[in-house]
Amino acid sequence: MKRIALLVCILMLGYTLFAQESLAVSQKITVSSELKGAVSGAKFLTDGLVNEQSQWATSADKPAWIVVSFSKKTTLGGIHIYFGNPANMPVEEFNVEFANNGVWQNIPSANVKGNKFGAVALAFDATIDVITDSLKITFTKTKHDQFMVRELSLWSVYRLGIPALGTSVTGYVGEKEPHVPKIYINQSGFNIGKPKRFTAPLVDEGTAFKIVEKGQSEALYTGVIRHKIGDFTAFEPVSNKEYVIVADTFKSFPFRIGHWWIERVTYQDAMDFMIDSRHYVGNYTKKCQGTYSWRDDSHFGWELHTLVPQYLSHPEAYVRMNKQVKYQAPTDTTLWGSLKPYDESAPDIVKLIHWGADVIVSQKLAHEHFKGQLAYFLYAWPYIKQWLPQQNYDRVKAYALSIWQIDKVDRVYAYEESPGHNMLSLKTRIGSTKGALPPGASIIPNLMMYEVAKRDGMNDATIYFDAAYKQVEWMVQKLDWNDPMTTKGQRMSEFITMTSLAYMLKQYPDRAPAGLKAKIDAWADVVIRRSDNMWDFRKLDDKDQWCPTGNLPQHWNEVGNIVGFPAAVLSMINFVDNKPKAERLLQIAFAQLDNSFGRNPCGRHCSYDAVAEIEGVDLGWYHQHPGGIGQLENARFVLEGSPKNAHYPYHPERGDIGWTEGWVSFNVAYNLSLAYLAAYDTKFEKQKQKRKTLVRLQVPQNFDYNKVETITVDMTDKKGRVTKLTLVEESTNSPYFSVTLKTPSKPVTISYGLDYFKKGITIGDR
After folding, report:
1. Residue 726: closest CA among 316, 268, 311, 309
2. pLDDT band at residue 766, thresholds of 50, 70 and 90?
3. Other CB atoms closer than 10 Å to residue 144's CB: what's the count?
4. Peptide bond preceding 382: is omega within 30 degrees of 0, i.e. cis?
5. Residue 161 lies in a domain
6. How high is the pLDDT of residue 423?
7. Residue 343 DSSP symbol
8. CB count, 10 Å around CB of 102?
9. Are residues 657 and 607 in the same domain?
């Protein structure tokens, strides 16, 4: 009876959630033309019916348009458009404008290209407030002779977003809401040796669960659900089988368990997104407003901040990837081309690093965050120069030095929050939830420039270290981790803060400001406290705020915050002396990854195309955003949706609410998590065997479970001479790569990873 009552409440809430009428009803509608006929006039656009007996169709005019005129100024939050014969006649390109003081103004989020859907829901984004007495929809491309629209609905700004398609209309038959198992898990799979947990919101305390092979009933592992959570970390099968969790009357989606499963199914995807989403040369080549190297990056895309660590943490993984990128010479040299082309043999990740630096220098971008990206390029030079002309380094260095201490900026940047751009100045302003100004953004760039200056024999090297030191010192003294704006409130850019503090402590342990280690430890306490819930989900605050919210429906889509969180944890976890605390942090870090893979109140992966792109995923996000500033919907592996505050602690009935749209800043956060995951799992060990030594390396390289793979590492003698050494996977599905060497008479160091991600072991007689 309790479950029946709960279901009734859910259904009633779902019924009343969007009890609002389309604002287009009873408004004046004008159109470019009408096809003569009884059922094809403009009057049918807002009659509440979606069928072929009630639609608007044009004659052969292109473009065609609809104008909705209101009796007074109205604030709009979004639009639904139901096209004629949705199975085969969607309009491919259209845009929405609103009258602003008598001038038609474009709504960036409603500029749609490549549409393939029979019905489209477009929420208007926060770039602009749509307050108007007229709205215009212009249709520009269709595969047919006519434009056809069966129904048009307009919605006001509402805290839960615009309604789902089909609300307040009759006859729309869209995709049925799929069944979502009430045992919420990472739908793809789990890493061997890492936390494995699920959430079961509807079962009673103490309910037993079992894990079975898909299609079987025999229990392979059993446990008990506590506080709505089941833990099966100890279940460590090495197989190619799929498993299912059974508890009470519920069954989960099937999943896999394997060595570095998460990395295995997303490493190439992460690279594919960065390839596709480049501006001008990616898979959408037209100009996008307010973006530079990557579409929709603005000035806080953090691309080189994450691509460089990815490469340094696991170079072999990226070198062995299939090459997709080829150099494209610019037709407009003000956009890119200041850097000479790379050697085509370079791995794609190096070509992307080159691309990011080239655009910054060519367009003379001078925002402090772009300066930071150049520091990453210069710092990584010794490891990428084999594929790049020396001119690249000289040009980037000269430009970076010329602007590093300049306070003024070169142009007006969207979402600007920086009060000044001198990289040596103390940064005391904390940015907003937009993510454009996270605390500590200048730390790593200045420390990298310090190393670059020392490497190149520059006399003023210490100015960069001093600036970083003062910045860390201020953060240790002034940042209050209890204030959400210093942590999760920075949304996808939060990783900047913790990785920067951890970088200072790791690289300069004897020169770091006093109290830094304690400050990092205090952050861990806040994280653990705010993750004490059935999702192991790190909340925004200690009260009832799970996610950042605001007064507009698009506040906030925070998928980047979730997928970037592991980078923050893994950057600092080795400084946590308390073992239970470190174990809990690791548990929370993987819980955030699991959240993005379906362990969330919506039971969906955060990517709309996840089912097609990620092995094992059963259900992607509700929808993708067509068009928008970045035109990213056709890029591969777009991370675009996340549960909103109203979905928590458990309200799946609220469905597709709030804002959904891919953003480069979301994906790069995940990229950095991949880097720190690789570094965390790279470990050497040795075994002395008479006159020989067995060297074993554990590293996320076993991506083909049916093949013996290899990895190349460095062997360095006392004189600094480096030779390459090949380690072989110990079996077709092993976490270890190894080699047996004759024990050298003089010590040598065997290492993998580069620079601050380098791990090594010394062998030999002393």
Report:
1. 316
2. low
3. 13
4. no
5. no
6. 98
7. P
8. 6
9. yes
Is residue 572 within a helix (H) or strand (E), and if so which, with residue range?
A: helix 559-572
Structure token digits, residue 247: 């508890």
Cα torsion 39, 45, 47, 50: sign: positive
Burial category of 72 from C-beta neighbours within 10 Å (exposed 0-12, middle 13-18, buried 19 and up): exposed
To 10 degrees, what angle do helices 462-478 and 494-507 make? 120
CA dist 570 and 463 (Å) reads 29
The DSSP H or E segment spanning 399 is: helix 390-403
Residue 18, token pair as written in the block: 């969007």
Q: Which class for 59: exposed (0-12), middle (13-18), buried (19 or more C-beta within 10 A)? A: middle
Whether residue 138 is found in the same domain as residue 207: no
Q: Do 537 and 640 belong together in one domain? A: yes
Strand 56-57 vs strand 243-247: parallel, antiparallel, or unpaired? unpaired
φ/ψ (deg, to 5) at 293: -70, -40
Regarding whether 521 and 621 lie in a shared domain, the answer is yes
DSSP 3-state assignment of 740? strand
Asked whether the beta carbons of 712 and 674 are under 8 A apart, the reply is: no
| Domains identified in the chain, total number | 4
By DSSP bridging, strand 748-752 and strand 759-763 are antiparallel
CATH code at position 38: 2.60.120.260
The pLDDT, as a whole number, for residue 87 is 62
Q: pLDDT tens digits for 323-353?
A: 999 999 999 999 999 999 999 999 999 999 9
CA 561, CA 558: separation in Å to the nearest integer? Answer: 5
Instruction: Provide the token pair at 141.
Output: 């491309």
Tell whether 530 and 448 lie within a shared domain: yes
Least confident residue range of 51-65, 183-197, 237-251, 556-570: 51-65
List the CATH number of the domain containing 707: 2.60.40
Same domain, 596 and 697: no
Task: Provide the domain limits for residue 96.
Answer: 22-156
Q: What's the pLDDT tens digit per position in 113-138?
A: 888 888 998 888 777 889 999 999 99
pLDDT tens sequence across 544-555: 999 998 776 667
**Residue range 9-24: mean pLDDT, rounded:** 52
CA distance 122 to 155: 10
Secondary element (H or E) of residue 516 = helix 516-530
Q: Which of 674, 611, 587, 598 is nearest to 642 (CA)?
A: 598
Task: State the Rg of the chain over Cα.
Answer: 27
| Strands 243-247 vs 710-716: parallel, antiparallel or unpaired | unpaired
DSSP string, 361-372: HHTT---HHHHH
The rounded distance, in Å, linking the Cα atoms of 369 and 148 is 46
Per the CB < 8 A criterion, the answer to whether 633 and 120 are in contact is no
Residues 312 and 415 reside in one and the same domain: yes
pLDDT at 18: 44
Which range (99-108, 203-212, 471-480) has the least confidence? 99-108
State the chain's mean pLDDT as an integer: 93
Q: What is the DSSP string of 167-236?
A: TT-BS---PPPPP--SSB--SSEEETTS--EEE-TTSPTT-EEEEEETT--S-SEEEE-BTTEEE-TT--
At CA 242, angle to CA 239 and CA 243, rounded to 5?
110
Q: Which of 254, 211, 258, 253 is nearest to 230 (CA)?
A: 211
